[in-house]
Design brief:
This protein has nine helices and 16 strands. It is α/β, with parallel strands linked by helices. Strands 4-1-11-12-13-14-15-16 form an eight-stranded mixed sheet, with helices on both faces. The protein has a four-stranded mixed sheet with strand order 3-2-7-8. It has a two-stranded parallel sheet with strand order 5-6.
C-alpha cells in the first residue's frame, strides 16, 4: 500500500533486542457490534424506527485492541471467538485488517458470538446485548476470557486489565511478575459497595483510570481531583476522566499532577471512547512522554473517536491525528495556549500530511466482492 505518511512507531528509539515482541497484551470478550446511527430520538415502544446509518465491527475488548494497534503498538489479544460467521468476521477484521496478534486466541466449536446492538442518538447510546459464556474444557460454562490461555500470558511491555470487584484474574499477577506494566480501568460496581479493597488486582497496577463518578464513589470524595489524589495513595499513577471537562492525573512517584481540558467536538457515537482514551494514555506512557502530553494525547484520540460511529471502527490512527493537527492550525480562531498544548505532535508527525485509505474493519457484513 502506497501512502504519503510513513508508519509511525511511537516507541521508535526505545526498542532493544532483549525487549518482548509484544507491546501490549489484553484479554476479554469479543462482541459483534451492530451500530445504528442517525436516529432523531430514542425508539418508541410499539413503533418502527429507521436509522440513517448502520455499521458492524468487532466490539468489547476488540475496541481497545484496535485502538492500540492503530497507534502503532504491537498488540496481542487472547479471546474466545464464536464458531459462526460473526466470529469468523471478527477474527479476520482484527488479524488481517488491524494486524493484531491472535496467536493466543481460539475458536470455540459450537459457540456463537456474543452480539451487541447499539443505537446512537442525541450524543448518547442505548445498547442491547446477547451472549452465552464460552464452554470450558469439560463442557462447563466459564467467562470467555478464562477459556483462552492455560498458562502465563506472553511477555509484554504492558497489559490492560478491567477490574471487577471481588474477582481475581491470575493472569494479571503473572503478567506483572513477568515485567509488564499494568494499566486498569473499572466498570460500575453492581454490588453498590464501592470498596477499593475488593479490587484485588489493583495492587499490581501501575496506572488506574476510572471515570469521575467511579473514582469519587470508590474514594468517598465529592471532587474528582480529591479522588485522584486519594487513588494515588493506592497506585503509582491515578487518572480520572472528567468527560467533557477533560482528565486529571496524579503521579504519586514524582508528586506531579496534570489537568488537560477536553476538546470540544460534536459527538456522533461515544461507544468505545473510554477504551480509546486508555489506549492513547498507554501509548504515551510507554513512549515516556510527560504526564500532561499523555493526557492531552489520550483526550485527543477519544475526541476523534466520538465523531465517528462504532467502537473499533472509530478508533483513530496516526493519519487522522496528522490530518487533525494540520487542519486545526489553519483555523484563525484557535486559542494559542490550546495549540501549544499539542505542540508535542510536531516531533511525531511529518510536516505535511493528508489522510489516506487504510484497510480497517469493514463496516458491513457480507460483501463478497469489492464495491
Amino acid at each position: 500500500m502506497s501512502t504519503d505518511i510513513p508508519d509511525i512507531d511511537p516507541l521508535d528509539g526505545l526498542r532493544a533486542p532483549q525487549d518482548p515482541d509484544c507491546d501490549v497484551f489484553l484479554t476479554g470478550t469479543v462482541f459483534l457490534d451492530i451500530i445504528f446511527t442517525g436516529l432523531d430520538s430514542a425508539p418508541v415502544r410499539g413503533t418502527e424506527s429507521w436509522a440513517r446509518g448502520m455499521g458492524s465491527s468487532p466490539g468489547g475488548v476488540a475496541n481497545m485492541a484496535t485502538a492500540l494497534a492503530r497507534l502503532g503498538l504491537h498488540t496481542s489479544l487472547a479471546a474466545a471467538f464464536g464458531d459462526d460467521h460473526y466470529g469468523e468476521y471478527c477474527w479476520d477484521a482484527l488479524e488481517q485488517g488491524e494486524g493484531i496478534d491472535l496467536s493466543m486466541s481460539h475458536t470455540v466449536p459450537g459457540w456463537h458470538s456474543p452480539v451487541t446492538v447499539s443505537m446512537a442518538y442525541e450524543g448518547e447510546r442505548t445498547m442491547v446485548s446477547h451472549g452465552h459464556e464460552a464452554p470450558g474444557p469439560a463442557g462447563a460454562a466459564m467467562p470467555a476470557e478464562e477459556n483462552v490461555f492455560p498458562s502465563c500470558p506472553p511477555r509484554a511491555r504492558a497489559a490492560v486489565a478491567s477490574l471487577v470487584p471481588g474477582r481475581i484474574e491470575p493472569w494479571v499477577a503473572k503478567a506483572a511478575a513477568n515485567g509488564a506494566r499494568i494499566f486498569a480501568d473499572v466498570g460500575w460496581d453492581e454490588t453498590g459497595r464501592w470498596d477499593l479493597d475488593a479490587l484485588a488486582d489493583l495492587e499490581h497496577c501501575e496506572a488506574f483510570l476510572p471515570n469521575a463518578e467511579e473514582a469519587m464513589r470508590y474514594t468517598r470524595t465529592d471532587c474528582p481531583r480529591a479522588a485522584a489524589h486519594a487513588l494515588a495513595e493506592r497506585v503509582p499513577l491515578a487518572v480520572v476522566t472528567l468527560g467533557a471537562e477533560g482528565a486529571y492525573a496524579v503521579d504519586s512517584a514524582t508528586g506531579e499532577s496534570a489537568v488537560v481540558p477536553a476538546i470540544e467536538v460534536e459527538a456522533l457515537d461515544p461507544t468505545g471512547a473510554g477504551d480509546v482514551f486508555v489506549a492513547g494514555f498507554v501509548t504515551g506512557t510507554l513512549a515516556d512522554w510527560p504526564l500532561a502530553d499523555r493526557l492531552a494525547f489520550a483526550g485527543l484520540t477519544a475526541a476523534l473517536s466520538v465523531q465517528e460511529f462504532g467502537g473499533s471502527l472509530s478508533a483513530p490512527g496516526w493519519e487522522e491525528i496528522a490530518a487533525w493537527w494540520q487542519q486545526v492550525r489553519t483555523l484563525t480562531d484557535q486559542d494559542p495556549a490550546a495549540l501549544r498544548r499539542y505542540a508535542f505532535l510536531d516531533e511525531l508527525l511529518p510536516a505535511a500530511a493528508r489522510p489516506w485509505p487504510l484497510r480497517r474493519a469493514v463496516p458491513t457484513l457480507g460483501f463478497r466482492h469489492p464495491a
